[in-house]
Amino acid sequence: MLPEYRTIHEVITMDKYVCMMCGHIYDPAVGETKAFNNTILVNTDRMELYEGKVMAATPIKAGTAFADLPADWKCPSCGHPKSYYRRMEPDTLRAMRTISY
C-alpha cells in the first residue's frame, strides 16, 4: 500500500541508494523485507539455503523514501548503518555504449 501523499510516478522515480560496504541497493519502489542476520556461514557452498530467509520484524513498505527510514535501520546484507549508503548516480552513458567485446 503506497502512502497517500505519493503518486506511483513519484515512487518509481525516487532515488536508489547503495551500501558502500557490500553493494546492497535500497530501492524505495520495492521497499525492504529482509533483516540483517549476523550468522557466520563457514560452509559457503550452502549459502543459497540461508540467503534471504531472515525477515525483518517491521518490513519497510514500498514507497518509503530513504530519508524516511528509521535512524537505527541497518543494511540487511552486511549490517552497516544507514550512513554507509550513498545515492546512486544514473549511468547516462550506458545507452550510448555500443561496443561489445
Give the amount of beta strand, in percent.
Answer: 15-25%
**The top level CATH class name:** Mainly Beta
Question: CATH topology, which one?
Answer: Rubrerythrin, domain 2
Report how far the terminal alpha carbons are from each other.
Answer: 44 Å
H-E order? HEEEEE
Q: What is the CATH architecture annotation?
A: Single Sheet
Number of spatially distinct domains:
1
Q: Which range best describes the helical content: under 10%, 10-25%, 25-40%, 40-55%, 55-70% or over 70%?
A: under 10%
Q: Going across the biggest sheet, name each strand in turn.
A: 2-1-5
Mean pLDDT: 75
- What is the global morphology? globular
Please, could you describe this protein's structure?
This protein is mainly beta. The chain has a single domain, classed as Rubrerythrin, domain 2, CATH 2.20.28.10. Helices cover 5% and strands 17% of the residues. The strands form two sheets. Strands 2-1-5 form a three-stranded antiparallel β-sheet, with no helix packed on it. Strands 3-4 form a two-stranded antiparallel ribbon. A hairpin with a 5-residue loop joins strand 1 (17-19) and strand 2. It starts with 7 loop residues before the first helix and ends in a 14-residue tail after the last strand.
